[in-house]
Each structure stands twice: as structure tokens, then as C-alpha cells.
Amino acid sequence: MQDKQVYDGIAMLKEAATHLRIHLSDLVAATSLWANPEVHSTLVAENGTGSFFPNMRRCRPGAGERRGQLIGVERLDDNSYANHAIKQATGISRSNITGFEACHIWPGTSYDNRYHTVIANLVLLPRPLAGLSDHDPEIQAVLQFRAYELYGWHPKESTPPKEPDYYPKMWTDLRPFTEKVKRALVNRRLQHS
Known about the structure:
The chain is mainly α. The chain contains eight helices and five strands; from the N terminus they run H-H-H-E-E-E-H-E-E-H-H-H-H. It has a three-stranded mixed beta sheet with strand order 1-3-2. The longest helix has 15 residues. 32% of the residues are buried.
């Protein structure tokens, strides 16, 4: 006899979290790594967009696009540059960070060359929680408001986010704007000029 039960992972997770009185937003807030707002301000002053690597977007392999391809002025990426950008912007050495994923805060923006590497649109989340940024509206709302709170930024097509009904009170400390981060900003400019 065939099992006719329908299993919805997101629904099951929400139900379990509610039953256990766990707010997934609190887990995200307690483990997310954010660049210092000074990084975003510096990039906006430099290029007007806040992009770490301007004119770059995620490729669509199903449409025949591939990483590294140039389409007009757009360079296509597989999220490697977004990952590199947020890690450089936080000042964390590659050897000192493991188990984190670069996540885009606003859905669909990774495919837009104006937003793919905007530091205010990126956060580092532990790998087990990273998928929530793509699939959980509550987490998306919390991350969007946090980004707006920190950077005063949102995609031009969107209205400024409102504070969600449940918003975590405790967030990880912001990464400092160190000499290492300043050097990364300069080196990035030199390498891509």
C-alpha cells in the first residue's frame, strides 16, 4: 500500500518550532555575520550601488549561461563572487570560517547585476540555516528589516521593510571596520580596474 501522507518540510519545521517554543529568527539572529555598515557606505560613495563587484549577477545554467561568461557588461557568477565579497567585507580570513553560506537577503536579487554583490544584500548564515533565507517568509522579513536597520538599504523596486511582528532582540555583534577590511576594499578596486 502506497503512503498517501504529504510531507511539507517547511510546514513541519514551523510546527515543531512552535511546539518547542523556538523562534527560528532567534537562531538566525544569534548566528548571522554582518559586514560593518561602514563597508556599505564606502562602496556607495565609490560606485553609487554598494556593490563589491559591480555589473555581476548569478548565471542561469538552465538558460545556457555559465560562470565567468560576459553578456554585455555583465559578468556571470555562481555565487562565488558574492561569497567572496561578504567574507572580505567582514574581514574574516578564509581559513577562519567554515560552515557558513553567503545568503542574499532579498529574493531574486542575485540575478540582478545591480544587487548581486551589494554588501547590504548579503549575510553569512550557518549552512544548516541558510536555506531559510530562501524559503521562509518570516526569516526573509527579519533579515530584510535587519539589513534596512543596519544599512538603510533596500532594492529600488521594493518599499522599505517594516519591523516584523516578531523581531529578535539579540543579534551577533557587527564585524569591525578594520584595516584588513579597508585593504580588501582597495585591493578589490585595483584588481578590477
